[in-house]
Amino acid sequence: MNGVTIGQAAAFVGVTVKTVRHYHKLGLVKEPERDSSGYRRYGSAELLRLVQARTLAAAGVPLAEIGSLLDADPALFAAALADVERQFTERIEELIARRDTLHRLADGDRALLPDRAVALLERMSGLGFPAEEVAAAREGWVLARALVPESFDDYLTHIEHALEDTRFVALIKRATEAATWEPDDPRIAELATAMADHLLANPAHLKIVTGLQARTDAATRYKLIALHGEEQGSAAARGVALVETKLRAAGIHIPRPDTH
């Protein structure tokens, strides 16, 4: 009559009878022999093993690894636990990253752009840029970050500096207004000339145009970024084309939209 029944053992350890039997099946705990009455009696050794297995399982150690841990000598046990802890740390970091992504999803901008870019979008709004222009910038930056990631931080730096120049800000706002003009409006050519002249006179601002060409793949990436959202034949598309033509004429390398 020494020992306790499987039901009592499960209750003492804090698991179900089904769990105890599962531990037996996996070989984590040896199933005790039956006594003269036909009952399996769990002694202190089996109960200790059950407690150890339950504790490791509750800590998140995979059941497939618990047996080797319980059978290891103290040194191997400590090393194995350290490895398990490392795995847990990696999983925790991954879960934290996923949680942070979920938090960022609450803000559409922060889900796709770094905080620095989001701050710049907010700055543009504060400078009086129309909502549609800020939205267009957001989409263009998402593309730029995806297509030319190694140059994106520098690109943001160039924009930060350019937004400090009131003349440049005024030109961009004027270009936003030009999107509503007719494609043959003579003011488009005048604005393109003014924009090209400003860029040529301010090399740091010119890098906004040239800085994303590190991996253009024969202009493919450049076209996707520069022409995003511009309908072919629109006033905005014509303005972009005129500015690029003037920059090329001045010796600035700008990929041509018809290259591949």
UniProtKB/TrEMBL annotation:
Transmembrane segments: none annotated. InterPro entries: DNA-bd_dom_put_sf (IPR009061), MerR-type_HTH_dom (IPR000551), MerR_fam (IPR047057). Keywords: DNA-binding. Residues 5-72 form the HTH merR-type domain. CDD domains: HTH_MerR-like (cd00592). PANTHER family: HTH MERR-TYPE DOMAIN-CONTAINING PROTEIN, REDOX-CYCLING DRUG-SENSING TRANSCRIPTIONAL ACTIVATOR SOXR. This is HTH merR-type domain-containing protein. It comes from Sphaerisporangium flaviroseum. The lineage of its organism: Bacteria, Bacillati, Actinomycetota, Actinomycetes, Streptosporangiales.
